[in-house]
Amino acid sequence: MKDYSNFFNNVYEVVRNIPIGRVTSYGSIAKFLGVARSARMVGWAMNQAHILEDVPAHRVVNRNGRLTGKAHFAEINQMQKLLEKEGIKIENDEVVDFEKHFWDPSIELGFD
DNA sequence: CGATTGACCGAAG
DNA sequence: CCTTCGGCCAATC
Fold it and tell me: Which residues are within 7 Å of strand B by their Cβ atom?
């Protein structure tokens, strides 16, 4: 049973729970929610996220650590700017030491 | 309502 | 390194 109506809601909730100075990937979120093959839906969720306020979409990148969604922000450098502000270095639109800053919801949040 | 697109992922060549 | 393909599903045209 998969409540896709709640799926988007869950995505936003997970993203909100991303600690400062950490980043995660769309796939990891999707996997955490049990829809590993629907990572694109996470992307769509992010697309809708811009209407929300507590959704730090800048902390969500693709599995390469690349800022694929930067073009969707109000300003192109907004995403990189926010990340660098949190102590994450960006180089060539990619997160430096991505693995080091990577935050896996399935590990950090985990299930009870 | 059919076809296309998309802030993805992974595998294959 | 790059391109192509299959998969998944909502939103858009």
Answer: A 25-27, 39-44, 46-47, 49-50, 57-58, 60, 62-64, 68-69, 71-73, 79
pLDDT in tens, chain A (112 residues): 455 568 899 999 999 999 999 999 999 999 999 999 999 999 999 999 988 889 999 999 999 999 999 999 999 999 999 999 999 999 999 999 999 999 999 886 654 4
Query: Does the pTM exceed 0.85?
Result: yes
Strand bridging mode A90-91 / A94-95 = antiparallel
H-run or E-run covering A43: helix A39-49
E-only strand ranges, chain A: 24-25, 60-61, 90-91, 94-95
C1' of C7 to CA of A30 (Å): 14
Minimum-distance nucleotide, CA of A31 to C1': B9
